[in-house]
Amino acid sequence: MAFESMNTLPKCDANYTALSPTTFLKRAAAFYAERTSVIYECTRFTWGQTYDRCCRLASSLVSLNVVKHDVVSVLAPNVPAMYEMHFGVPMAGAVLNTINTRLNAKTIASILRHSGAKVFFVDYQYVPLARDVLRILTTDTADKSMPLVIVIDDIDSPTGIRLGELEYEQLIKKGNPGFVSVPVDDEWDPVALNYTSGTTSEPKGVVYSHRGAYLSTMSLVLGWEMGSEPVYLWTLPMFHCNGWTFTWGVAARGGTNVCLRNTTAYDIYRNIHRHKVTHMCCAPIIFNFLLEAKSHERCEISTPVQILTGGAPPPAPLLKKIEPLGFKVTHAYGLTEATGPALVCEWQAKWNMLPGDDQAKLKARQGISILTLADVDVKNKDTMESVPHDGKTMGEIVLRGSSVMKGYFKDPKATEKAFQNGWFWTGDVGVVHPDGYMEIKDRLKDVIISGGENISSVEVENILHGHPKVLEAAVVAMPHPRWGESPCAFVALRSNAEGAATESEIIAYCRKNLPHFMVPKKVEFLPQLPRNPMGKVLKNVLRDQAKTFVLSESQQTAVDLYRNDQQILALSRL
Amino acid sequence: MAFESMNTLPKCDANYTALSPTTFLKRAAAFYAERTSVIYECTRFTWGQTYDRCCRLASSLVSLNVVKHDVVSVLAPNVPAMYEMHFGVPMAGAVLNTINTRLNAKTIASILRHSGAKVFFVDYQYVPLARDVLRILTTDTADKSMPLVIVIDDIDSPTGIRLGELEYEQLIKKGNPGFVSVPVDDEWDPVALNYTSGTTSEPKGVVYSHRGAYLSTMSLVLGWEMGSEPVYLWTLPMFHCNGWTFTWGVAARGGTNVCLRNTTAYDIYRNIHRHKVTHMCCAPIIFNFLLEAKSHERCEISTPVQILTGGAPPPAPLLKKIEPLGFKVTHAYGLTEATGPALVCEWQAKWNMLPGDDQAKLKARQGISILTLADVDVKNKDTMESVPHDGKTMGEIVLRGSSVMKGYFKDPKATEKAFQNGWFWTGDVGVVHPDGYMEIKDRLKDVIISGGENISSVEVENILHGHPKVLEAAVVAMPHPRWGESPCAFVALRSNAEGAATESEIIAYCRKNLPHFMVPKKVEFLPQLPRNPMGKVLKNVLRDQAKTFVLSESQQTAVDLYRNDQQILALSRL
């Protein structure tokens, strides 16, 4: 009876509205109309103006025959147009596809082809790259439909550079500010399409729903405790998971977006100082830029700047150096498939009492799930069992919840593989500490399995990075006749130290600092490590090279002796 | 093509989970297990323990034959059991019905009957009241099914008082800590049933969905900017819209709930001091308690306590007095049907520059919509047009969004009436200021319509409250032969001033401070105003009385002359 009546209460327009991040803009325009929304060099907009411009953009897209769920691609740095597209494109009912500007023409062409992009916006700076992309698309005889190209000239200092006939500001001028957004019929509808970087495979198209984007935005604003009226500096490219959802989040908070074409240390310091920046996101590599800036490139930071960092754990020495400059770092872990950060290393008040080294160690952990993830766990994929919370036992990190992607576009096989047994399998290997905080140890495919022992390549690399002569290092598996795999290190030395370090010196250093079975059995020196356009080390290339290495007899024996000792020890404990 | 493929991506357990506020507890237990969750006098629990207790409670309810969507009612102050029920009851699949402890036995009996409550939890303090309730239910021959009664003894200092055989702590002890929550099949499923106070009509049962409760919780934590690890003092009864959703919100933030049986000034100050309280919600009436506390009842407040207030706009003089004591007030407006606060008067940094009086005036406004409301507006119900943003034109406040109730339980007529034309009609009359902030002027039914002019009874009351001899005042419509209605004031004088004020003195005072057409044409003195158990003035009683009043000829003429003047003036302007 109770059941009947309470459940048959009707959903209606008044009590059930589709969750969509575009609603944050409408609200910002209603309540923060006069507040500054976007700053880019000498250009400034208010939330009232940004809403007006996004309505115009959406109406122009519709008049260009963009229809519901068409893909609109964009190749641009963090300029105002890029920000506006995060609202204007979905307001036209279309799906936003932001493309990594560091990719090569061939990859971009394949993304445009795979996504079936109807419109292709190109910032003037990337016109030469886009020309190459279009050439590839045109010569591809299998594909007759070309996207409509629209160039985005610099709004602050127009260059006149064009590609095709249309230019972004024309579209805005001609647009209708009274345009009514194409309604979101279902919050499960797509809002964005983001291609993964693909270190080992073809880029995959990750589809976000309005619901997922909305909930992720809410959780990240909450997880980072971003208060009202933030001044957000766009150091993180918006093409990374829609700026880890902060494109939408800054609107939700009625904040100010400080747009940035180039992320040089000078530009970052200058903008922080000039606009009293309160928040920014970036990879830890940006810490190096900030620390290595020359004195004339720096400005004083009067109030602390909150940094959310991810992509790689921030090394403790960097954390200790960056915070005294006026930055307060929060560490997050995520991936494109999780709509950006899925774990945030939420700080606990009691940790403030600990010594700096311990604090840095705690901060380097990836942390706890954001609020809208229903569940996070670390599992043994074979047994489906959760690993014990001992900070040691490794398993694959799995996620579940409404901020996980809809799936991979036109790739049911990959989608099925990603979603198994009710979880999204991240492909990252981690541990759970006794306090429930998680720490990533490696990418699944980078784990070295030696005689049944899992070796985290990241842990070995961390030790190698501590060697004074090592600039960068990557550790991969090499074949071993008895143990299956053994660690092999690729090392680039600091320029002032070249030739000065030997293989045996490096190995001796590792022996001092690592359990013996984790010590690389071979060290190969390279002038620099091979990287993809995202800056990620191409471990598959190194692995291919390591496959050709053969251990000398003495190297084999050393390992075998060690293993035998270990096994005897293990047996004696039973 | 794009449409087809992106939309057919499957919802699965990994990427689509029902939004439910109970997930906040599970997360708190995973990541804040050792942190204090609940404090009540000498009793303390951690989040790990609270989760354990809620699992036990849920399992015990299931073993008492509570099945999905059964109603579980509770009559209790803000004690730990009341908090735990906000998770334990929905974890058993049931719907939580918290009952206002200030209601009389007859009303409580009618709520239990209307809701079909299967279980009735009663705090020991309310056993005498509950006995009366049960007597009414038993003598009601039409109803044979009685709820199972379970008493909640004081956990900190047990009294031994019983009603029926079962006691809450027994249930916890016997329960299964490994109980797996009854899954939420659909986030639209009911989670709570809250009866309105009903000043003029029968209480109506407002049904919340898991989705609505979840989203409201997120928005309110965001809207109030409640950071990590809050220490929340339970001054606001949890039976008010589930403590304005902070029952769930404190779990989401991994905070500490400081429970409070009695909200005396002494108890409030003592707990703030002892536990370093950071947040509390209350009606402005509590400000009076805090201000009037004697010195031995007070404690020093070392760090500012955030107060979220609502129910009535906080009068400016109160705000000016309360903030220097160490409280920082945020003003919100809501109603049971909106899952608590729907508008929050979000503070703008630029207002900090303004003089104190202007700040208090801005803070007394009800503000802007919380994030999960898709839309808020002030509309003329006849034309469905939005009022201009002039701070003057009145209309009815309407809401739309996923934090609005599912509807009224077993009352399709009232539900249909509340949801018209795609909006929830609040029955509150307000204006929109040029900056988009809203201000409530009156309850719709309390507006006095005089010759086509809307008069806000609240505005007239505000002026009357400024008269030094007036303790309390209520203004309602009285019939007028020509203008339809005129304002009539009911006034209770301060005890030290009784008999000293005359009708003409009060009217003269109003003439000095109000436009003439808003001046009460009659003032009736009462020893005190009639109020309902919630403390709300029963204006319907006063209206009935005012209907019997007849204006003298001179009173009529004065009004008519004024009106004629006004009309001539208006015509001359055309």
Automatic annotation (TrEMBL), chains A, B:
<keyword id="KW-0067">ATP-binding</keyword>
<dbReference type="GO" id="GO:0005524">
    <property type="term" value="F:ATP binding"/>
</dbReference>
<dbReference type="InterPro" id="IPR045851">
    <property type="entry name" value="AMP-bd_C_sf"/>
</dbReference>
<feature type="domain" description="AMP-binding enzyme C-terminal">
    <location>
        <begin position="459"/>
        <end position="536"/>
    </location>
</feature>
<dbReference type="Pfam" id="PF00501">
    <property type="entry name" value="AMP-binding"/>
</dbReference>
<dbReference type="GO" id="GO:0016207">
    <property type="term" value="F:4-coumarate-CoA ligase activity"/>
</dbReference>
<dbReference type="GO" id="GO:0043759">
    <property type="term" value="F:2-methylbutanoate-CoA ligase activity"/>
</dbReference>
<dbReference type="Pfam" id="PF13193">
    <property type="entry name" value="AMP-binding_C"/>
</dbReference>
<comment type="similarity">
    <text>Belongs to the ATP-dependent AMP-binding enzyme family.</text>
</comment>
<dbReference type="GO" id="GO:0050218">
    <property type="term" value="F:propionate-CoA ligase activity"/>
</dbReference>
<dbReference type="InterPro" id="IPR042099">
    <property type="entry name" value="ANL_N_sf"/>
</dbReference>
<keyword id="KW-0547">Nucleotide-binding</keyword>
<protein>
    <submittedName>
        <fullName>Cinnamate:CoA ligase</fullName>
        <ecNumber>6.2.1.12</ecNumber>
    </submittedName>
</protein>
<keyword id="KW-0436">Ligase</keyword>
<dbReference type="InterPro" id="IPR000873">
    <property type="entry name" value="AMP-dep_synth/lig_dom"/>
</dbReference>
<dbReference type="GO" id="GO:0005829">
    <property type="term" value="C:cytosol"/>
</dbReference>
<dbReference type="InterPro" id="IPR020845">
    <property type="entry name" value="AMP-binding_CS"/>
</dbReference>
<dbReference type="InterPro" id="IPR025110">
    <property type="entry name" value="AMP-bd_C"/>
</dbReference>
<dbReference type="GO" id="GO:0031956">
    <property type="term" value="F:medium-chain fatty acid-CoA ligase activity"/>
</dbReference>
<feature type="domain" description="AMP-dependent synthetase/ligase">
    <location>
        <begin position="26"/>
        <end position="409"/>
    </location>
</feature>
<keyword id="KW-0963">Cytoplasm</keyword>
